[in-house]
Amino acid sequence: MSVYPKSMVVAAQPEAVEAGAEMYRQGGNAVDAAIASGLVAGVVDPQMCGIAGFGSLQVQLPDRGVHECIDFHGKSPLATRPDQWEHLLVGETRDGFGFIVEGYVNDMGYQSITTPGSLMAYYEAQTAWGALDWVDVVEPAIRWAESGWVVRPQVYGFWTEGATMGRASNVDRLAVTDAGRQMYFRSDGSLKRVGDVVVNPDLAYTLRVVATEGADALYNGSLTDRITTDMAANGAVLTDEDLAAYSTTRTEPLTGNYRGRTVHTNQPPGGGVMVLEMLNIVENFDLAALGHNSVDYVRTLTEAMKFATIDKDAHVGDPNFVDVPMAKLTSKDHGAELAARIGRGDRAVVERMSSEPKDTTHVVTVDRDGNAVTMTHSLGMPSGVITPGLGFIWNGCMGVFDPRPGRPGSLAPGKSRFTSLCPTIIESDGLLDMVVGAPGGTQIAMGVTQTILNSIDFDMPILEAVSAPRVSGTSTAIDVCSRIPYSVEQELVDDGFEVIRDPHGFAFARVHAIEVAEGALRGAADPGGDGAVQSVG
């Protein structure tokens, strides 16, 4: 007997949502829907994610006793040197999630590529836990690549946002290779616009190979020689040795609790530790009494964000390289200590040398049997590199490593860098309550945490919880979206805070979520993007 009347998929692209729904109609489960959705997202949102990206997923299959996370962060190539860019260092992004070096070599082009994990994770999850054949799950992505997809506002907006935080221009990224110039620009050399069609037969070819060979196609199969030849010819650090050595990491979820709910999120180098730390801090305040997005609420929440950011910068990294003090960072006592400082009026100072961009996407699925998946996957900042004949863009994740040796995020061979990815599942009395996650760079943990607070502390239905105006505290300044009242901003300024108003009404991550309400599933895609929700009975 089914647990819920219908299955549901929520994702940042309508084409990806349709692929997930198609899997349900074919008899697939939440895993099939999530992976099909992820593969299609890599076709129709090709600068956000793809088979050469990275990410984190959490899967819960109650009937099979499975509750597991797959970490598939990108790993720096084995030939990486800790000091290779120290002499080129220019600065650090304001939110502390990326570094600027001369020539953008860490941010764009062949040297910016880490060993990708996305395709391996997709394949491992689907073949271990899916109900359909792998080839059937890949098929929707092949169709979209072959028939073409229409440029949506969110895609075009990313292309044209220019150079942000001192990084390379996104238009320059699209033009790194001949394949990119041919695919994303019109015949007159101008950038394609909203409504234009992008056809990618090379990616259709690649996905057909992947459908036949699985993940081996990229890591040790038919595509590998072509990839490594291209890398060697263009000065990349990535080699066939890196591809052959890559493996995902399977872990139990990182688990805490908030106001009686159980919160399951991901382990480092993902951002789940920040989510739990922030929840532990604000649990010491009566947030509802403060008032949603009131001056006191914004001040309290953003100070919690800043203290969690300081701890992240100082302590959190790849656990294979950094001894992360998890017991302390996720303890209620530590949260209470920081809450006491906030209550006394202490103000956190986030040190920087001088916002990670939103180049990521997310999918959440829950099926009628109660199986749930939440997956955040990304290219980081896309390198712009497209290997001739293969059609997909490589990640540009080397840009988030610290070029200064001796720090938690410093460069090292085979290392993953901290990201804010935090696919999260919340239970109440042992029953599924919410499945949530977001794209949005370093703002991901901030957006996810606020959605959780909106739901639990302010009793908002999921669409309202996802849509409510957000704030952020990833630097010493307080960032607010344009829908935060000016009166709140002015009072904070009068109290001595630096407040930076984002011109967007929907800012600080793009949250996607499914909640269980009155025995049924309700979904929400962040209104700031092009996402959608679909149910299948």
Q: Can you walk through the features of this model?
A:
The chain is α+β, with helices and mostly antiparallel strands and 537 residues long. The chain has a domain at 254-356 and 421-517: Gamma-glutamyltranspeptidase, large (L) subunit, C-terminal domain (Serum Albumin, Chain A, Domain 1, Orthogonal Bundle). It is built from 19 helices and 20 strands. The strands form 5 sheets. Strands 8-3-2-12-11-1-20 form a 7-stranded antiparallel β-sheet, covered by helices on one side. Strands 9-10-13-14-18-19 form a 6-stranded antiparallel β-sheet. β16 (478-480), α19 and β17 (499-501) form a beta-alpha-beta unit. The two termini are 14 Å apart.
Précis, in short:
This protein is α+β, with helices and mostly antiparallel strands and about 525 residues long. The chain contains 19 helices and 20 strands. The chain is globular and about 60 Å long.
Helix content: 25-40%
Fold-level CATH name of one domain: Serum Albumin, Chain A, Domain 1
Query: Largest sheet at a glance?
Result: 7 strands, antiparallel
Instruction: Write down how many β-strands occur, each being a DSSP E stretch of 2 or more residues.
Output: 20
CATH A-level architecture of one domain: Orthogonal Bundle
Task: State the CATH class of one domain.
Answer: Mainly Alpha
The secondary structure category is alpha+beta
The radius of gyration computed from the alpha-carbon positions, rounded to a whole number of angstroms, is 22 Å
Shape verdict: globular
* Major beta sheet, strand line-up: 8-3-2-12-11-1-20
Strand content: 15-25%
N-end to C-end Cα span = 14 Å
Mean pLDDT over the residues: 94
Low-confidence runs of at least 5 consecutive residues: 353-358
Assign the CATH superfamily of one domain. Gamma-glutamyltranspeptidase, large (L) subunit, C-terminal domain
* Total count of helical runs of at least 4 residues: 19
